[in-house]
Design brief:
The complex is a heterotrimer of chains A (278), B (586) and C (375).
Chain A (H helix, E strand, L loop, with lengths): L18 H36 L1 H9 L3 H27 L2 H32 L5 H23 L7 H5 L10 H9 L12 H37 L9 H25 L8
Helix pairs in contact in A: 1-8, 1-9, 2-8, 3-4, 3-9, 4-8, 5-7, 8-9
Chain B lengths: L2 E4 L4 E2 L19 H5 L4 H29 L10 H37 L7 H23 L13 H5 L4 H28 L12 H33 L12 H18 L2 H15 L6 H14 L15 H29 L8 H24 L1 H7 L3 H31 L5 H27 L14 H31 L68 E2 L7 E4 L2
Antiparallel strand pairs in B: 1-4, 2-3
Chain C lengths: L17 H34 L12 E3 L1 H30 L7 E7 L2 E5 L5 E6 L6 H5 L4 E4 L4 E7 L4 E5 L4 E5 L5 E5 L5 E7 L12 E6 L1 H8 L16 H11 L30 E3 L5 E3 L2 H9 L23 H13 L34
Parallel strand pairs in C: 2-6, 5-11
Antiparallel strand pairs in C: 2-3, 3-4, 6-9, 7-8, 7-10, 10-11, 12-13
Classes of the chains: A mainly alpha (278), B mainly alpha (586), C alpha+beta (375).
């Protein structure tokens, strides 16, 4: 309580009695903030859970067409960045300014790499038209039209309609197998909303979750990157002496939370496995 | 029945009244930037006070338009579209821009550090940021109102709000989303402050009940607001992108929105009453010169309301399509959440027992609160009971119920707080006569506005209706008449409080002779609140003994009239071990 | 009931169904307890404020901190009282949301801003709504949801657009009507008459005009209504979906009403070029040449496809003879059903407006002084 722990003149803020109280308050404040972040994402997770429960087939289908390898790389990047962030706290505690800045920049780079891969992933999805709404609908209509045209042509020529196996091995005109082709093949010949069909509308519902959840998570990463840059700036100008290490600790708490949210998000979105065969 | 009575400790005569210093938080620095960039919690409280008063005026005008239009069965002054925008504006502005910030952001900011003996809140710059975020959110909402209005009702249910409304929904929703962050910041700040910055001797068991109430409110703000934030964001995305998770055409469920929305909005109504309850505890004890009856019960009931309040949201949805078993559960939990409020009311009434009561404006507002909040609370029971809710849901019965608790409860408590702490915040005293008059006018006006609405609701008049069957007209006219009286009543404080700033007599440090730490500093306080470290030696509300929380004697209470200073009870607690409380058996 | 009464509302609102009779005692039970609690608090407050107001002289108050027993008492007592509300409320709710197993089902669709009902036999009624949001045909068919006295009916709802709510105060029932999902409730009316239907979930501009009527008729009349006879639903036309309604559509398609104008048009300066058809069926018709023929199905059929066969006394042969080529046998059956349905005052003339539902703005533009027009 006395002046024994009174550090650098500008570190202790005027309204606190001592550094210990200040650090303790800052940490508690950040933990409370993290609780609000958890609740913020929980709303989405709850909604996701409800719909995944109702539409397991569509969610599994949509998930299997996401770029899982990008998600894997991103997970690696983010987990490593949490490590470097924690090491940065250590540097701050030791008063090692150069080490602190180095580790902060490394964290920044890994986080920026995450965003880079995310941008690539979004661009690919956009290119694939794997976006809910008008893009999805028109993209899905193309292979459907092709299949139906072919089927109609056969019937016109007096031959029987396409069989299930023929449909599944049907090669659409185009460079490669596309989600819309997969969807058209699964639904071909079946009445909508019957056993075995994958409702294109509900696939779009999954995609809403995909974009919104990863998008909001991405915004949080960007904010975190901004905070890390701020820390770099503060460290550079000497405002993070040993006594003020809690600044780094508080930001790292936030960064760890964002990482942890990704660890929940990623399996729910990318790793849904349908029970074989679907 | 055994009542716990404490022994009277040994005391000495009180110290002399401190002189009011010429420099205080209001005049220490001057100029636009000293206010725009202030980190002083007191100045930020004043910033909030001025802004929310302006928004109260906006919301009040919207209410006036609504009530005026309902004078005739087919819309007296507005088209249907204008009416829908008016009642939405009234709800959105009053709830998000007035009621939710009101006591937490004005009195919470101003008083929490003072009451616990701290120099400021834990995060002063975050505090200032919360005000700016609030104003930015408000700006978006005002933009929404001016650029075509919102016509969805404050509840913003999809699919109407996401796909069918042609009004300016997006800016308004975004504005609400932004103000939510302000609410979270304020709550976070207060919680950390109460945890970490209490002065020596200020244990949890000695905290004023206002602090307990603010703590419980902050708990709700922290946990509930993020959920509505994500809900509104999802709604916004659906509106702007044309596709979203509540859209039935892609398998979405509009009822899911209701669950997510009410998960916040029900606890939100506790944000809109619990701080008021805190004010009531402060004022009642001071103006009856008695300890609060059942300190622990009142403190824990605030916490109980906050916790159980998160478990009852679907009682807004009994007819919305939830399952029968959900409804059973939520109704039961709602019965539980009603109990702590009842406990408080009984404890408050018991506090008055054998007190010495005067009826200045803060007390009048508080007594009005007790009457009106009780009505509001018990009418909630009709809605909590599933069988009656079917008929009363979405009728004027609900409108009357929530206005009784929010206006008759919270707004009156807010006014009680304004009148109680005005001398502390501004250093001026206002007119006793006009303040008592305005309390009376507001009470009478309120009664006539909302009691007829219970009748209307029981007979089935739906809410949000600009056109109604003729047989409902008499009660609507009565309600509008009451609303005009209420409007006059609200204008009165605006006038006499403003006048008091320029012409009112200067107030002493402790004009009400109250026990809290905030009354032990000058009126208005200095920038850093306390010139010395305040050490708390006893609980709040030791009026019976006549000591404040630092153990010093209290000055003469007002309304003591011909009380001889030599005979007053106030005295200073002498140091040494204090006698323990003894229980009187019998 | 819907009688436009402006006087004071009755102390007990009109009860017209089994659920209303279950609601009312519970409501007043809760009122009794809550009023008692409120009056108790007021009495105690008043007494304390009077008995313990500040008296001149030395202030002395006792240092009372609380009482565990009292806390327990006023925690447990309200809780127990609330639990009785809960238990009774569950009983009433249980009845309200569980239709009896054998009740016939009527479908109701809500859409901005009208209600449509469809009966088990395919007949459709417009229960009510904003006439301006309806097609011309719907406007002519605005009626009421017809229900039988003392018999349960299950009603299943769905919305075509946003969330609405079908609220019937006299029945003490309401239910949110959701897009994408069917929801059901049930009614067993106990009183004859017409009762308000309100939309009880805000749904946009004309939410307050999305009002309608429920008409409770004796069971026999309800059965007749289901068979297409009688206008129990109160709209000017036969029930949509009935044979007579199809006949009306043919009648309008063939423009029969340009010559066979209704009685209501007499005195408007329009000349009838053909006999009036209202109330014709079953009457004795005087024919040129002195004979009288009863207007039965065969007579009507001949009159349409072979109008020259019998000329009504006092009229000339004017009806074209080629209608036989424009109608099939089915159409003829429908037309005849329509003419059978026509009673005095029921035929719409070429320029008649339909009747607006209860609660719609009155059509008096010259007295409407509001600054904005209603759109």
């Amino acid at each position: 309580m006395s002046a024994s722990t009174h550090g650098h003149g500008t570190v202790l803020k005027h309204h606190f009695d001592n550094l210990e109280q200040q650090h303790s308050a800052e940490r508690l404040g950040m933990w409370f903030f993290l609780v609000t972040e958890v609740l913020f994402f929980t709303g989405m997770f709850v909604a996701y859970t409800v719909y995944r429960n109702w539409y397991p087939g569509e969610f599994a289908f949509a998930s299997s067409h996401l770029l899982w390898w990008v998600a894997a790389i991103n997970t690696g990047l983010l987990i490593t960045s949490s490590l470097t962030m924690t090491l940065a706290i250590r540097s701050a505690q030791l008063g090692d300014k150069a080490g602190l800045i180095r580790r902060l920049l490394l964290t920044f780079a890994l986080g920026a790499g995450f965003m880079g891969f995310k941008a690539f992933e979004y661009a690919t999805d956009y290119h694939e038209k794997f976006v809910p709404g008008e893009m999805f609908r028109t993209e899905y209509a193309r292979p459907l039209a092709e299949l139906t045209a072919d089927d109609a042509k056969r019937k016109f020529e007096g031959r029987p309609a396409l069989t299930r196996t023929e449909v599944e091995s049907y090669q659409f005109k185009g460079e490669y197998e596309h989600w819309s082709q997969d969807l058209a093949k699964r639904n071909y010949g079946r009445e909508p909303a019957t056993e075995g069909t994958v409702s294109p509308e509900r696939v779009q519902l999954f995609l809403c979750f995909y974009y919104i959840m990863t998008g909001i998570h991405g915004v949080h990463i960007i904010v975190g990157l901004g905070c890390i840059l701020w820390l770099v700036f503060e460290a550079y100008r000497g405002a993070i002496p040993r006594e003020a290490y809690s600044k780094v600790e508080v930001i790292s708490l936030y960064w760890h939370l964002v990482d942890m949210i990704w660890l929940f998000l990623m399996p729910l979105l990318y790793l849904i496995r349908s029970g074989g065969g679907q | 029945m055994s009542i716990v009575i404490g022994d009277t400790p040994r005391t000495a005569p009180p110290p002399p009244e401190p002189e009011t210093p010429r420099r205080n938080y209001l005049n220490e620095t001057s100029g636009f930037w000293s206010w725009a960039l202030t980190v002083d919690h007191k100045r930020i409280g004043i910033l909030y006070l001025v802004s929310i008063t302006a928004f109260f005026l906006v919301g009040g005008i919207a209410a006036g338009l609504v009530r005026a239009n309902l004078l005739t069965p087919n819309g007296a002054i507005l088209t249907e579209d204008q009416y829908n925008k008016a009642f939405t504006a009234h709800g959105v502005v009053m709830l998000f821009l007035f009621l939710i910030p009101s006591i937490p952001a004005v009195f919470g900011n101003f008083l929490v550090p003072l009451m616990i003996g701290a120099k400021d809140l834990a995060f002063p710059r975050l505090n200032l940021a919360s005000w700016y975020v609030f104003m930015i959110g408000a700006a978006f909402m005002v933009w929404g109102l001016l650029s075509g209005g919102i016509d969805t009702g404050w509840t913003l249910y999809p699919p109407y709000s996401s796909r069918y409304s042609h009004a300016s929904v997006a800016p308004g929703v975004f504005g609400v989303f932004i103000t939510g962050f302000s609410s979270i910041m304020t709550g976070l700040n207060i919680m950390v402050t109460v945890h970490k910055m209490r002065a020596p001797g200020m244990t949890w068991g000695r905290l004023p009940l206002f602090i307990w109430a603010m703590y419980a409110t902050s708990f709700i703000q922290l946990l509930g607001t993020p959920v509505v934030a994500i809900t509104l964001l999802l709604l916004l995305v659906e509106r702007l992108a044309g596709v979203g998770i509540f859209d039935p055409s892609i398998g979405g469920d509009p009822v899911l929105y209701q669950h997510l929305f009410w998960f916040y909005s029900h606890p939100a109504v506790y944000i809109m009453i619990v701080p008021g309850m805190g004010v009531v505890s402060e004022v009642l004890t001071c103006f009856s010169r008695k300890n609060i009856f059942g300190y622990k019960a009142v403190a824990w009931s605030s916490v109980g309301i906050a916790v159980v309040g998160f478990l009852v949201w679907a009682h807004h949805m009994f007819v919305a399509g939830i399952s029968y078993y959900s409804a059973l559960l939520f109704s039961f939990l709602t019965m539980l959440v009603a109990v702590p409020s009842a406990i408080k009311v009984f404890n408050w009434v018991a506090t008055l027992y054998r007190g010495s009561i005067t009826f200045q404006a803060p007390m009048m507002f508080t007594l009005a609160f007790l009457v009106l909040f009780t009505v509001g609370g018990v009418t909630g029971m009709f809605l909590a009971t599933m069988g009656t809710d079917i008929h009363l849901h979405d009728t004027y019965f609900v409108v009357a119920h929530f206005h009784f608790v929010m206006v008759g409860g919270m707004v009156l408590a807010y006014l009680a707080g304004i009148h109680f702490w005005w001398p502390k915040m501004t250093g001026r005293m206002y007119s006793d006569f006009w303040s008592k008059t305005s309390a009376t006018v507001i009470f009478v006006g309120f009664f006539f506005t909302f009691v007829p609405q219970f009748v209307l609701g029981y007979h089935g008049m739906p809410r949000r209706y600009p056109n109604y069957p003729e047989e409902f007209q008499v009660y609507n006219v009565l309600s509008t008449a009451g609303a005009s009286i209420l409007g006059v009543g609200y204008l009165m404080p605006a006038v006499y409080l403003t006048l008091s700033l320029f012409f009112g007599p200067k107030a002493s440090a402790n004009p009400w002779s109250a026990t809290g730490l905030e009354w032990q500093v000058p009126s208005p306080p200095t920038v850093f609140n306390f010139e010395y470290l305040p050490i708390t030696v006893c609980g709040p509300y030791e009026y019976a003994i006549g000591v404040d929380q630092m153990g010093r004697g209290l000055p003469e209470p007002p309304g003591a009239g011909d009380d001889n200073p030599a005979t007053r009870v106030g005295a200073t607690l002498l140091p040494g071990p204090q006698p323990k409380e003894t229980e009187v058996v019998g | 009931m819907l009688d436009g009464n402006r006087g004071p509302l009755p102390a007990i609102a009109e009860r017209a169904s089994v659920m209303a009779d279950l609601f009312e005692p519970l409501f007043w039970y809760i009122t009794a307890w809550t009023t008692a609690g409120f009056l108790l608090v007021c009495a105690l407050l008043t007494w304390c404020c009077i008995a313990y107001r500040r008296k001149p002289g030395r202030i002395s108050t006792p240092r009372i901190l609380g009482s565990h027993r009292l806390e327990l008492f006023w925690t447990v007592t309200p809780l127990l009282v609330f639990l009785t509300f809960y238990a009774w409320g569950v009983y009433v709710y249980d009845k309200a949301v569980h239709p009896p197993a054998d009740a016939p089902e009527v479908y109701v669709i809500g859409k901005q801003w009208m209600w449509k009902a469809q009966y088990p036999n395919g007949q459709r009624v417009i229960i009510g709504g904003n006439p301006k949001n309806m097609t011309e045909e719907d406007r002519q068919n605005i009626g009421a949801l017809v229900l039988p006295l003392n018999r349960p009916v299950k009603v299943t709802f769905i919305s075509e657009d946003v969330i609405h709510d079908f609220g019937v105060p006299a029945f003490r029932q309401k239910i949110d009507v959701i897009p994408g999902r069917y929801v059901s409730t049930w009614y067993q009316p106990t009183k004859l008459g017409e009762f308000h239907v309100f939309c009880d979930q805000y749904c946009g501009a004309w939410h307050s005009l999305m009002v309608g009527k429920i008409k409770v008729v004796p069971a026999a009349e309800f059965d007749a209504f289901l068979e297409g006879k009688g206008g129990a639903q109160g709209s000017p036309n036969p029930v949509d979906g009935s044979l007579a309604h199809k006949g009306l559509q043919h009648f309008q398609r063939l423009e029969c009403n340009t010559c066979h104008i209704p009685n209501a048009a007499i005195g408007t300066g329009r000349h009838a070029r053909a006999p009036n058809l209202e109330g014709l069926y079953g009457r004795d018709v005087p024919i040129k040449g002195g004979i009288t023929i009863r207007a039965d199905d065969q007579y009507l059929r001949d009159a349409i496809v072979n109008p020259g066969k019998h000329i009504v006394e006092g009229w000339e042969r004017a009806m074209p003879g080629n209608y036989g080529t424009q109608v099939s046998e089915e159409d003829l059956n429908a037309l005849i059903a329509y003419i059978k349905w026509l009673r005095p005052g029921t035929q719409l003339g070429p320029n008649n407006n339909s009747v607006a539902p209860y609660g719609a703005p009155r059509q008096t533009p010259e007295t409407n002084k509001s600054p904005g027009g209603k759109q």
